[in-house]
Amino acid sequence: MKMIAEKQNINFRHLRALHAVAAEGSFSAAAESLGVVPSALSELMRQLEASVGAPLFDRRSRPPVLTPLARDFLDDTTPLLDGMDRALTRLRQSAGLEEGELLLGASPSAISELLAPVLAEFLRGRPGLRCTLHDDIAERLAGMVSDGRLDLAIAGRAQQSPDLRQRAILRDPVGLACPAGHGFAEAGEVALADIPAADLIGLDPETGTQHLLAGCEAIPRAFLQTRLRAHSTVAQLCMIRAGLGLALLPRNAVALFRDPGIVFVPVAGLDLWRTLHLLEPARRPLTEAARAFVEALETTVPALTQP
């Protein structure tokens, strides 16, 4: 069926004007409720009647009354206006962060010291804003940001991708994590040569920390072929706390649980640092919630605003 609206010039201003006249009972009262002068309202009604090709008011009455045609039109257009009002309300609420959803990703070691404090402040006073936090390794988080399953992520550097933008946030040194009761725990620092390779707990080869260790020439190759291996930093720290061994980890990773039973000991002469990055989509705009969270993060971490 050919749409007659193709040759019509009816918009929501006309519909709201007609509904206002019906609700207020007169042109003057409707004009006042809409915040327009009566002549402007009369012109809108003239345009509407011209587009329809039939009168919508019986002007023999004072004030003019709606015709049966206009009454039917009101019934048909009420759902349109109600739907527009709901859509505008949701739009304003989302723009003002009164509601919406924020999908974040983070490597576990980026949560306690960096992401969680910023997120707690960001969510304060916004009870209608929902947030999901997904923890994983950098490459998987990068893939989730690229394909839209996450808005943002904080993790180690991932492989370059045209769908991803990576900005350095902060860096922390790699050292030795050991149980509080271990002989190294009281030392101001430890030498690489004094660390028994047999006591080390390794990580999944795909993790950022393991990539970092593998790429450092100063790390003995025996340190990469460990008898014990954990899938994640969380599991690795649990094993260290239980006394199963030691591990080479970034300082903030060791502080993940703020557990006094796990101690970070600097390694003498080891100039190895882990850098955390903010992973953002490069080919799609951020949601309003994600944009506001990045602003909060930039305020907290000045390095984000530097070239």
From TrEMBL:
GO terms for cellular component: cytosol. This is DNA-binding transcriptional regulator, LysR family. SUPFAM superfamilies: Periplasmic binding protein-like II, Winged helix' DNA-binding domain. Keywords: DNA-binding, Transcription, Transcription regulation. Belongs to the LysR transcriptional regulatory family. It comes from Salipiger marinus. Gene3D superfamilies: Periplasmic binding protein-like II (3.40.190.10), Winged helix-like DNA-binding domain superfamily/Winged helix DNA-binding domain (1.10.10.10). Residues 10-67 form the HTH lysR-type domain.
